[in-house]
Amino acid sequence: MQGTATATNPTSIHRAAAGGLAFRGVSKHYGIVRAVDGVDLEVARGEFLTLLGPSGSGKTTMLMMIAGFTTPSAGEILLDGKAITHLPPEKRNFGMVFQGYALFPHLSVFDNVAFPLKVRRRPAEDIKREVGRALELVQLTPLADRMPRQLSGGQQQRVALARSLVFTPDVLLLDEPLGALDRKLRTEVQIELKQLHERIRTTFVYVTHDQEEALSMSDRIAIVRDGRFVQIGRPADLYERPATRFVAGFLGESNFIKGRVSGAAEGGFAYAVNGETFRQKAASIPAAGGEVLLAMRPEKIAIAADAPSTAINRAQGRVTSWNYFGSDFHFTVATASLGQLAVRCPAWRMKLEPKNEMQVWLGWDADAAVVVTDD
Ligand SMILES: Nc1ncnc2c1ncn2[C@@H]1O[C@H](COP(=O)(O)OP(=O)(O)O)[C@@H](O)[C@H]1O
Ligand SMILES: [Mg+2]
């Protein structure tokens, strides 16, 4: 971010003194709909936690309970160890940003950002100073006198951010805030948001259904499904070690392989599918004779015209479709042993001239896949 020289350091002002959140057995039921179903969660002060899940999985309901606009049917919500479950929203010092920006159209950028401070009846000189700092934080100082209609979508979203940060909230709640922005702008604002978080270290709870957004910004991601958490962890841990079929398929793309365990093999086990045997590294060996489900990322499979000499696992197949994405190629390959496999190859590594129906070899290492449970 390009900074303009100022007398004050915005980070010292905007660092909140609180912000550790916890859910203890929190539920929200609407009649027979279990929007949120008995969840536990710890969010450390200063953490960037993302709730990631499909539409209708309960993310907004969780955020609304943190904000205080929705009361849980059961359980407690704690802020720094104290129950706030029944505290009204205006008594929680939390900021909120939503998709629709909801700036006041008749107020200037300055007055929009000043609004929360006016509501709190702060003196005029405080307001001037704090709004100045908040605008600087989101790089909108030169646009303070503009009206919302004179701003781009990204700029409006930054005004909304400044407005939600101006009163130094303990926690910032963001519900799909970038949903209305086009792809390129969304990527830019993602980077800005992450940098902003790194500077102010306010607790962020961020809701999205966009896996890329979650992976690129969060300290931790909680995967939400049917009102529960399926898995919580750091982005790379979730991507590399999804626990279930759902997580492997929702966070990125995965091939799923169902095999029968033949027995232990060097650092893992061997399994058979349609008469062919493959090897997989694993910390714990599944019982011989049982079924095992593996998830394998398309980019972990190498594709070549000839049989790979180094890969531990290999399969011959036929290209049924291919697409060029600039940075990489995506293939669908029909194999005799494993059915259809999705394969990705970085463009710079491509040694094939891709053609439909061409015969290819696929190769992958013993640690290319992970064992997942079938949910
Ligand atoms: N006020 C409400 N009354 C009845 N059902 C609701 C209400 N709010 C949410 N739900 C239901 O709860 C579930 C979770 O909704 P929501 O939290 O909005 O999901 P998400 O934000 O993940 O899309 C959905 O099935 C939704 O229809
Ligand atoms: Mg929602």
Compact description:
The protein has helices spanning 10-14, 59-67, 109-119, 124-137, 153-165, 183-200, 211-217, 235-240, 245-250, and strands at 21-30, 33-43, 48-52, 74-79, 82-83, 94-98, 171-175, 203-208, 220-225, 228-233, 255-265, 268-273, 276-281, 291-296, 302-304, 313-324, 328-335, 339-346, 359-364, 369-371.
CATH class of the largest domain: Alpha Beta
Q: Give me the side-by-side strand order of the main sheet.
A: 6-7-8-3-9-10
Strand content: 25-35%
Overall spatial form: elongated
GO molecular function, one term: ATP binding
GO cellular component, one term: ATP-binding cassette (ABC) transporter complex
Domain ABC transporter: 21-251
Subunit structure: The complex is composed of two ATP-binding proteins (PotA), two transmembrane proteins (PotB and PotC) and a solute-binding protein (PotD).
For the structure shown, list the relevant keywords:
5-stranded antiparallel β-sheet, single chain, disordered N terminus, 20 strands, OB fold (Dihydrolipoamide Acetyltransferase, E2P), 375 residues, 6-stranded mixed β-sheet, Rossmann fold, elongated, 9 helices, binds magnesium ion, binds adenosine-5'-diphosphate, alpha+beta
